[in-house]
Amino acid sequence: MAQEYDIEEVRRRYVGMETAETQGRYPVEHDPIRRHCHMVDDTNPLFLDPDYAKNTKYGEVICPPSGWLAIYFASLGPWPPVFEPLVPVVPAPGKRIINMAQEVEWFDVIRVGDRLSIKRRIADVFQRPISIDPQAVWVISELIIKNQHGKVVCVVRNTLLFHRSPEEVAADKAGAEG
Predict the structure, then answer these.
(1) Of 139, 66, 53, the residue nearest 100 (C-alpha)
(2) 6, 98, 100, 165 from 132: Cα distances, Å
(3) Under CATH, which number does the domain 7-23+87-177 receive?
(4) If DSSP codes are grouped into helix, strand and coil, which group holds residue 134?
(5) What tens digit of pLDDT does each residue of 153-169 get?
């Protein structure tokens, strides 16, 4: 028999749920910014040249508007390895996860020397069928990134799709018919 899944109960329990705010392990540093820019062929001197950046309205090198760099600096860093859940785990019929989209809303620049923190929250949960799974669950998560002054510098929104394998869907159909 198909497993019962109460989307309204899941929404009630999880939408708005947040993790505790945690501070990134390291301050924002020029060298990771420089390496990122070289990797993606970004030659903007505001990100690469401290002498140039010193004479701009920012007064120093700033971080390119990359959600991944903001997350990198706001997280616990690559070493020593520490598991940081991206969001509170939302129950869903399927365990396969696809990150369908990411968008970043910017409120301020990130400067070399900033100390960033991050808080994760579930913004929405809903069911919308896809071709292989009529019970697919979609989760909108937000990563709220603040600087050392408590000012939100950006919000990274991810749209996650949880779905079952075709075999799991077929097994549910067979159980419901039998």
Answers:
(1) 139
(2) 20, 14, 16, 7
(3) 3.10.129
(4) coil
(5) 999 999 999 999 999 99
